[in-house]
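Thread: protoporphyrin IX containing FE complex, take 2
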Amino acid sequence: MKYDRIQIILHWLIALIILTMIGLGLFMVELPKQSELPVGEESVRAFYFLLHKSLGITAAMLILIRIVWRITHKAPVLPASVSKWQQKAAGAIHGLLYLVMLSMPLSGYLQSMYSKYHTKFWGVELPRLAEADTAMREVFSQVHECLAFAFITLILIHIAAAIKHRIEGTGISDRMSLK
Ligand code: HEM
Ligand code: HEM
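Output below.
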């Protein structure tokens, strides 16, 4: 038994965006700020930050749709050959992945909201819900960074499990296959 078409498409679309977002996030924070560059050189930092924020909010929307879909459409039952502990472990990792999929864009948005810069969504300025606050920005920046590393760990465990199932030929990896 497989996941339904919508769940499979959303899984791969969101996975692609999240992997891009992690790469983009780690890359952009290393870029020099305008004040660190010699006069006449323009920083590309703001461009990548705006791209990260827009793509991140897009991801959040898709994630919300996915969660609503998942609540209203059950996952296919796992074959009895999968031991009880493995079923529990998979359930726990999937639950944590959903939790981080939600808290990652939320902490990013809050961090952006408390910064002195505006949050734009593909060019459209979003309303400011709170005044800029350096201390709060720093808190959510730390949360966003810690969550990023938790996310990377969970994704690596998740991919390792998928590869293990593929090698063992249990058929589990086909449950999310686009074919
Ligand atoms: C799935 C969603 C997201 C993922 C996977 C993600 C991932 C990341 C990663 C890996 C970093 C680098 C961490 C660091 O070293 O500080 C980062 C930084 C950042 N993210 Fe996100 N992010 C997401 C959503 C968002 C959203 C929705 C916003 C804002 C609307 C946002 C705003 C930021 C900002 C402003 C930084 C720079 C932090 C700093 O300067 O310290 N992120 N993100
Ligand atoms: C990078 C971000 C990824 C995220 C956030 C993610 C998240 C998830 C979640 C939450 C589920 C559980 C679906 C549910 O029951 O609602 C799932 C299932 C699955 N994922 Fe991923 N995934 C990612 C990438 C990948 C990759 C790269 C692979 C393959 C190497 C993969 C293979 C699978 C498979 C085979 C299942 C079905 C497991 C089962 O039948 O119990 N995922 N994924």
